[in-house]
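Exercise 7. Given the encoded structure of a 232-residue chain, write a plausible sequence.
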C-alpha cells in the first residue's frame, strides 16, 4: 500500500488543570499558581527551559484569574487598566521595554491586580538597567520548573499523543522514555514524528513501529522487535 499524503493540520492544545501532571520537578511552580490570589506581591515569576510547562501553567493561571495575555516586547503601546490580571510570557527572550514594564507593575500594585511572568532563566540573571525594576522583580515570588524525570516524561508523552487523538500502549511509552531527551520539546517532537509516520503508512503506533521510525531518523541501529505492525 502506498503512503498517503499527510496534511499538517493544526492540533488542539489542551491546557486543562485536571490534566496537568504534578511531580517534584514542577510542584513549586504549580503551587505558586494555586496560591493566587494570596501572593505577597502583585506579580510572580515562573522560569524553566523551553517547553517545560510554563505556558501550560500560564493558561491554568489565566483560567483561575480570568487573565489576559500580552506581548512583553509590545508593552510600550499596551493600554492596560489593571482591572484584569495579565500574563507576560518569555520576558527574557528579548530586550525588555523596562519603563513600560515598571509602569505595568506599578499599576498592578496600585489597583490590586496581578501579573504572572514566565522566563527561561531566573530573574537574577536578567539584564535590567533600571535599578528599581531590577530590585522589584527580584522581590517577587519565584518558582523553577526543572526538566522532567522518567515519570514526568512518560506522562508528557501520554498527553502529547492524547492531544493528537492517539491511544498509545504502555510498552511504547516505556520504550520512548528510554530513548529520547528528557524535555517537553522532545516529547512533543517524537509524538508529532510518530503521528505523521503512522498516518503516512496507515499503521498503528506499536513498539516495533516506533523503533523503526526512530532508527530511520537517527540513522543508527536499534533493537526493534520483529513483530509485525498492524495496519489500520
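Solution.
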Amino acid at each position: 500500500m502506498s503512503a498517503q499524503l499527510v496534511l499538517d493540520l493544526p492540533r488542539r492544545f489542551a491546557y486543562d488543570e485536571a490534566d496537568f501532571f504534578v511531580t517534584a520537578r514542577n510542584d513549586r511552580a504549580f503551587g505558586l499558581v494555586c496560591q493566587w490570589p494570596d501572593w505577597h506581591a502583585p506579580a510572580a515569576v515562573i522560569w524553566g527551559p523551553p517547553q517545560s510547562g510554563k505556558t501550560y501553567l500560564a493558561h491554568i493561571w489565566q483560567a483561575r484569574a480570568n487573565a489576559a495575555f500580552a506581548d512583553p516586547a509590545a508593552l510600550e503601546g499596551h493600554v492596560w487598566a489593571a482591572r484584569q490580571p495579565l500574563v507576560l510570557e518569555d520576558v527574557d527572550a528579548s530586550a525588555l521595554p523596562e519603563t513600560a514594564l515598571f509602569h505595568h507593575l506599578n499599576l498592578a500594585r496600585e489597583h490590586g491586580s496581578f501579573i504572572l511572568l514566565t522566563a527561561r532563566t531566573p530573574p537574577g540573571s536578567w539584564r535590567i538597567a533600571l535599578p528599581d525594576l531590577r530590585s522589584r522583580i527580584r522581590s517577587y515570588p519565584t518558582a523553577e520548573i526543572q526538566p522532567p524525570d522518567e515519570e514526568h516524561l512518560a506522562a508528557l508523552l501520554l498527553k502529547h499523543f492524547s492531544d493528537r487523538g492517539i491511544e498509545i500502549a504502555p510498552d511504547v511509552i516505556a520504550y520512548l522514555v528510554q530513548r529520547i531527551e528528557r524535555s517537553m520539546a522532545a516529547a512533543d517532537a517524537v509524538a508529532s514524528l510518530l503521528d505523521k509516520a503512522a498516518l503516512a503508512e496507515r499503521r498503528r503506533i506499536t513498539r516495533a513501529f516506533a523503533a523503526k521510525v526512530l532508527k530511520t531518523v537517527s540513522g543508527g541501529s536499534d533493537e526493534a522487535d520483529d513483530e509485525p505492525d498492524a495496519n489500520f
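Remark. Residues 1-10, 222-232 have pLDDT under 50 and may be disordered. Students should compare their own answers with the one above.
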